[in-house]
Hints:
The protein is an alpha+beta fold. It has a single domain (43-270), classed as Bacterial polysaccharide co-polymerase-like (2-Layer Sandwich). It has ten helices and eight strands. The chain has helices at residues 10-19, 21-40, 69-75, 88-97, 99-105, 108-115, 154-164, 185-224, 228-250, 273-305, and strands at residues 46-54, 117-121, 126-129, 134-135, 140-141, 165-169, 176-182, 256-260. Strands 6-7-1-8 form a four-stranded antiparallel beta sheet. A two-stranded antiparallel ribbon has the order 2-3. The protein has a two-stranded antiparallel ribbon with strand order 4-5. A hairpin with a 6-residue loop joins strand 6 (165-169) and strand 7 (176-182). Helix 8 packs antiparallel against helix 9 (228-250). The longest helix has 40 residues, at 185-224. It starts with 9 loop residues before the first helix and ends with a helix.
Amino acid sequence: MTDNHEKFSLYNLLILMWDKKIFILFLTSLFAILSVYISLNINNIYQSSAVIEPANISSNDNLIPDRLGAVASIVGGGLSNGGGSTDKSQLAIQMLQSRQFFRSILNDDILINLLAVDSYDHSSETLIIDDKIYDQKNKIWLQFQNKKQSRPSYLEAHMEYKKIVAANINKTSGFINISVRHESPIFAKEFLDTIINELNKIYKNKTLQDADEAIQYLNQQSSSIAPAVIKNSISTLIEGQLNAKMLAATNQNQLLKVVDSPFYPELKIYPSRAMTCILITFFGLIFAVSIVTFNKYKKILLNAIK
């Protein structure tokens, strides 16, 4: 009986592995060496995070007393009490994930840190830029040298932004957990600070703008309405809008309050080099065993497939 027709069994398989142990060990060792090389060439990734509480500041709707709800409905202008306030947690997450928000915070430094990083130098605490992508000396994006577009679009950068920025709501506490991952622990922390501050700034400006528009509209309505009772009620509504402006102007945390501030991470969150080496080496072992088994029992395996 030839080797190709030898009966397939666990015992025969173990004997085969022992006979081919030198080949198996050699190939597994190659994968082990490869795993070390790969793991050492993977950039460390650091994560800075923050815990955020939605600011408990009354919205314009809540500044309208119930007794004035009817008047607000009459004069219109979006002043009526809708019976509930906006979920600021969901609003904050939708805002920070939006292309419009990202475009408002995007600048040259952020664009380079998102799309042209090669590695991070811990000794100097600086990012090393990939000179095949971006020429720092001449400030040129090399991949766009011969194109009408001189730099990556904000849409390309936004795709990378969504990979490194994460936000979720803790269903128990209602707080928002926001995190940024990057090769540079400094950029991760400072970029997270920028995101939080810009979210509050945009929401604050929107609140001030809405209050100004509401006051202007109410003044116009007041001049065209005769009954004194309604005019007095409109004056109260205007007072509420002025109060909203005051709160927005004097409070920097109009949308979000920081419970646990962003920090400079000291320990990497990725990769686990030991696990990378173990997985690649294990794959090498399986690969070596598969080659030996297939060469020994290839006729049986091919007949089984047919």
